[in-house]
Each structure stands twice: as C-alpha cells, then as structure tokens.
Amino acid sequence: AVREWIRAHSRDQEMLLAGAQRQGEFSTTPLHYVCRNCPPVDVVQALLHIAPHTVEWTDSFSWLPLHYACANGASEEVLRMLAEAYPLSKTANDRRGRTPLHFALGNVQRPISAASVYVLSSTGAAACHDENGMLPLHYACAYGTSEEALKVLTDASPGSVKDTDNKGRTPLHFALGNADRSTSPAAVRLLLAEFREVVDFTDADGQLPLHLLATQASRLSNDQKKERRNAEKCLELYLASQPKATADFLTALQSLPEWLRDCAVVAPLVQDTLNDKISKRFPTMILLLDAYFLVIIIFSFRKASFEAVNWHYANEPTGKFFYPNLWFLFLGGLYFLIREVVQVASLLSLGLGKTWLFDPTNALDVTCILLAFFWFYIMFRIESAEVTGVQHEWIRTGIACSTAVFWMAFLSYLKSTLIDFAVFVGGVIYVVRRLGAFIVALVVILVAFAQMFLTVFQQTSYCDCRCNHGENYGECTLRLDTLDMCSDKIESYELEHAPFCTLSDSLMKVYTMLLGEVDDQDFKESLVAKWLFVMFMFLVVILLANVLIAIVTDSYGVIRNQRAAIVFWSNRLDFVAEMDAMTSGPWKKKVKSILSFGDAPDGSTVDLSEGDVFGRSGWKHLIELYDDEDLSPVSFEFWCYLVARVVTGVFIIPSWFLVGVLSAGWLWPPQMREYFLKQQASKHMHGDTLAEKRLFQLMEISNGVRNIQDEMKVEMNSDRQEVEDMKRQLVQMKSEVVSEMREIKDIMTTLFDTMPPQSE
Fold it and tell me: Which residues form a coiled coil (predicted)?
C-alpha cells in the first residue's frame, strides 16, 4: 500500500513530503509504522528519499525508526540503511536507556543475525547500559541468540563478559537463568572461554550463577526432555570451568533439583572437592564425634531403659550405673543440640535457612535430640513417680519406638560415610518406591483370601471347638451347646486358637502363609478350603513371590550399576555443605584462633586445615622408611633400617592411629584422614561382573549418541536459519528488481511521452 501510494503521487513532491512527515498516534511517522512491519528495502529507501530527516525523529517513547526495525526483526539491509542514514541512532537511548541493539537482542521470535549485530554495535552500542544497568550482552544471554552474534558482542566490548547490572548479575547469570534455551549452552561456553573467573561472581543477593540455574531447572517438568538436556549441558560447562569450592557453591549444588543434582555429584570436580573438604580436620572431627555420640546415646539409652523397665515390672532396684547412663544420654543429646544450633545459625548467617528446613536428615536429628532429653527427664524421675499400668505400657512402647529412631539415625550416619552402605540403603529405598503397585495388589489379594477363608469356616465346628479371639486369652471356654459335639475333638486340637474365625486372625494367618508358615490341618475338614489353599499357594506363594524377587533384583541392579555413585555423593554433599556452612559462620575467626596451635610469623592465625599441617611431613618420613633400599643384609645400615621399620610398624603407627581416634581425628596426619575418608566411585559405576561392565559401556555409547544427535539438531537449526535468511534475501532482491523494472518502465514511458513527434 505504501509503495502504491508513493507511485501514485510520484509527481507531487509536496504531498509526498507532507505524507512522510505526518505524525500519528504517539508521534509516530510513516517511517515508524513501516519499520514496525518488517518492510521491504525499497519502501524504506523511498521514505528516506522523500523525507530523510524523519529517520532522526522519535515518537513519544523516544523510539527512533531504528528502534522499531530492531524490535520487529527487520532485515540486515533495512538496519544497515537506517543506521547509515543516521549513524547516531545506533547508540540512541529510549526513555528506559535502551539502544536499538537492546531491542534486536530481545526479539525471541526473530533472532538477530551476527551481521546485523555487527552493524548495530560498530559505534559502541555494545557497551551501552539501559536503566537497569544491562548491556546488550545481558539481553543476548537472557533471550538467546547465536554463538556468532555473541562473539561479535564480546569482540566489540571485551569487558562486558564480567560487567554487572544494577543487581550485580553478569551475563553468565542470565545465561544460566535461562539454561533451558537451546542457545544457552553455546552462550555459557563462550562466556567462560572469554573470562573463566566469572563463575565465582555473586549478585547483590549473594547468588552464584549456579543458583539461578537451579531455580530455572526446578521449573522444568519430566516431559521437557530437550530443555532438561540443555540445562545439563550448561551445568557440565559450568563445572568444567573449575569454580571455587565455597559455601555458596556447595549450597547451590544442594538446591539443584534431583535430576540435575544427580549429574553434578558424579562430576570429577565435585567429587574431588567433597573428598578434599571431608578430609580436613574439622569435618573429620565432626564425622567421628557424630559416630561416638550416636553410640553413646544408643547404648546408654539401652542400659538405662532396661533397668527402668525392670524396676517397674519386677520392682528390681536400679543399679549403680543407672544414673551415669542417664547423664551419658543427656551428654549425647546436648552434643547434637549444640551441633544443630551452630549449623542453623551458620546457614541463617549465609541466608540459607531454607536449606536446613528441607533436609530430611535434619528432621531425624532433631527427633533424636528431643527423644534423648525426653527420656532423660522421664527416667530420671521414674523411681519417685507413681506410674499406673497404662503408663507402664506406654513407657515400654515409647522406649521400643525410640530405640528404632536412634538406630535409624545410626543407619543414616553410615549411609553418608560409606559408599557401599549408601548403595545398599539407597537400593532399599529405590526398591520400595518401585514396589508401590505390587504392594497394593498383594494387599488386595491377601484381604480377599482372608475374607474367603473366614467365610468358609464361619459357624462351623472348626470355630466352635476352638478358642475364639474374643474369649479369655490363654483359656478355652467352649459353649455348652457344643461341648458334646466337640468332646471327641478336644484332645486332638488341644484347644488351640483358630486362625480363620475372625478377620484380624485370618489376615495374620494368610500373611504368615505367604512367608511359608502353613499348617495343613487347618484345611482338612473343608474341600472348599483345600481348593482355596491350593489357589493361594500358587497365586501368592509361587507367582507373586517370584514377581517380587524379579522386581527387587532388577531394581537393585539399577541402583547398584547406575546410581551407586549418585546415592553416595549426594549424601556426602549434604554433610560437607553443612560442615562448610558451620566453618563459614560468624564465629569463624574465633574458632580458628582456638583450634590453632600457634601463630604465623607475621602474627596472623595459622589455619591448620590448610597447607602444611601438623603430621604431614612426619608421616611422609615414616612411609619413606619402607621405600626399597639397595642394602646388603650384612651391612649396618640394613639392620638399622629393619629395626626402624619394625618399631614404626608395631609401635609408632598404631599409637598414632589410637591417638587420632581419641582426638576424633584431630591428631591424625592428613594422609591418614585421606586414606579413610576419600572415596572412589568408579568401581561401582563400572560394575564388577562382565555383564555390568558391558551395561556401563552401552550406557556410555548411548550418551555419546545422544550428544551427537543434539549437536546435529543444533547444526540443522542453524542451517535452517541460514536458509531462511537466504530465502528472505532472495525475496527482497526480487522485490527490488521488480521495483527497479517498474521505475525503468515509468522512466521509459515518461521519455516516450516527452519525445516530439517525428515528421514523416
């Protein structure tokens, strides 16, 4: 329409000028309107020819025509034409401080090409901030663009990679905050190649780029497989850049959703970091103290509760160790209380209080603490209290349940310490989750058979001649009207309890039958009961039991071969993150000064958890005694070495080990702590048998094929974009050729009309 209007008024220059300068709503000119609709090059060229000064006019939002063209995905030729007509427009800002380059990089539907970015950034636009302090590179990482376009931006403004907006966020924050986009892995790779240290930058809220990745990844559903794969690639690139193992880094790893955290904990960097952290003095000391005090709580509680129950039921006096055991119970509860309070205070000082709340292990710890203090109070006054029979039973039940809780805490401790035990516990939990449908089906079948057996035996001599559940336990009181009928059966049945005469007893009986406890005497009086018994044994004992074995074997194989490392390292991550938060608390300097053996020469406190700590060089010299020496057995040096080796192996090393145990690992040399606490998960990942190794190899091949497929998809998308750009250029060239042919036709027509008629 614009082209036709210009052609229709091509001879009326005043009307053309007036039309091109006319301003409509929000002070927009026809050039603004045209640039808003992806215009052909000839239309923009015609408007610039008619009123070239309108390219400098802004609307009521301070938008130039170039802003409109960039915001709506105009072609490179149009952008170049507008920029050449008014070069200052490339760095012109609207009311919110945005340049045309900001608009172009914020267009998600029509990503800008690298050539267009080069045109727009040639005069310094790549270094312009908007009102939020965001550079065009921030926009490119947030909304997604090609790696080539990002390279143009970083070349135009090298410092923009580490530049921050008003909230302290770098371009890497935005790239990882939108890690689900297909362009994000390339953006992360480019940013880290330009400036690797940006991985450790935190924003104004103290968040690393990894925190934003965790937030975005938690929004991805199971169906968004491509988006999840993009996030995994971004995480791999981030970890490959060797970020510092700070408390923020560890808590960011904890905040990752489970599917992404599984990828993180098997990364070599994370495993090396966790191994290094846990073998430091403070984590080792806490790890051993946890074991010591858990054992103290379990055994002191057992001893004290045993004497308390005997006192109530048999009036046996408590022994001389009753109250010492109670005080040991109190001491264990006090230790874990102090540990938990310090941990919470440390996390709160780092702004990570939610991490403690959402960790189920902490709920178990708090439960143990409360139970320890509760039973200390109850048993401390138990001799002076008047306890009724109901309270007797309540106390005994409570002690049994509390014992289970304490042992669960011990199992949780082992799970976070030993990789084999972590695999076992993780396997049990994984199998139980997989057994949901099977358990429901089994319960339905057991209830059905229990009701069928109850119906078959109801109101028969089987139930009349045996003690019912409602009669006095331990006695058999038969009804008078059935006494004669049952007189000949009393001797054979021996008045035993009938298992199928009440629903509860019937349920218990079929459950024990499932486990193999069967008495065929219960079914000999009824043919229907015999057939039900045969059906039960085939369906439940033979069929379902083997299905259960198959499910458990398959599920445990999965956890052992595919998730062994994940289970263990996830537990270790939780523990190390807690310890790192505690050592990063507000009292960090005081603790260091108390636990240090001395001061540095310059007067500063020596941190014994770093560098050349006590015992490292001494242990090294001891181990060097066992190096092979080419000495003759008849030489004096040989016998000196032999005596030194025997004394070291028999006395020094065992004594040093025991001293370290008594000091909760504090006096162990670093090499000994590393030997006991550093773990390698490769053998669990690769498997022990040939079949497991082949399975692992197949998994690696599958992952490699998937990576190749993803790379091919990215390349195909890039090629498709180039083809579309070429097609668009061909269309524009065609329209330009048609326009030029029309102009030539008009010129030829005009010339023909102005030619004087030829005389004959």
Answer: 709-743
Residue pair 371/402 in contact by the 8 Å Cβ criterion: yes
Number of other residues whose CB lies within 10 A of the CB of residue 593: 12
Count of Cβ atoms closer than 10 Å to residue 117 Cβ: 28
pLDDT for 366-411, tens place per residue? 999 999 999 998 888 776 555 544 456 788 888 999 999 999 999 8
pTM of the complete model: 0.69
- Do 45 and 107 belong to one domain? yes
Query: How do residues 462-506 score in pLDDT, each as one tens digit?
Result: 676 554 444 443 334 444 344 444 544 444 443 455 788 888 888
Q: Which two tokens stand for residue 361?
A: 């292990």
Token pair 């059966």: residue: 489
Q: What is the pLDDT of residue 297?
A: 95
d(CA 178, CA 144): 8
Residues 200, 272 share a domain: yes
Quote the pLDDT of residue 390: 45
SS3 string, 640-658, reads HHHHHHHHHHHHHHHHHHH
Alpha-carbon torsion 153, 156, 161, 164, what sign? negative
Residue 574 has pLDDT above 90, yes or no: no
- Is the residue at 424 inside a domain? no
- Give mean pLDDT, residues 505-518: 84
Cα 259–Cα 261–Cα 263 angle in degrees, nearest 5: 80
∠ CA 114-118-120, nearest 5°, is 115
CA 238 to the chain's CA centroid: 14
Radius of gyration of the chain (CA): 40
Judged by DSSP in three states, 180 sits in coil
Give me the pLDDT at residue 528, please: 85
Mean pLDDT of the chain: 79
Per the DSSP assignment, residues forming a β-bridge with 497 are: 467
List Cβ neighbours of 172 (8 Å cut-off, separation of 6 or more). 141, 161, 188, 191, 192, 198, 199, 201, 209
The 8 Å CB, 24+ separation contacts for 84-88 are 85/48, 85/52, 85/55, 86/55, 86/56, 87/123, 88/56
Tell me if 725 is assigned to some domain.
Answer: no
Domain housing 487? 442-566
pLDDT at 485: 46
Long-range pairs of 654-658 with CB within 8 A, sequence gap ≥ 24: 656/619
250 token code pair: 């560890």
Cα gap 55→66, rounded to integer Å: 8
- Look at residues 541, 532, 548, 535 and name the one whose alpha carbon lies nearest to residue 455: 532
- 272 in any annotated domain: yes
Q: In this structure, what CATH number is given to the domain that contains residue 150? A: 1.25.40.20
Tokens of 256: 């990752």
| CA–CA dist 647, 657 (Å, integer) | 14
Asked if 466 contacts 496 with a C-beta cutoff of 8 angstroms, the reply is yes
Residue 311, token pair as written in the block:
């006192």
Residue 165 has pLDDT above 80, yes or no: yes
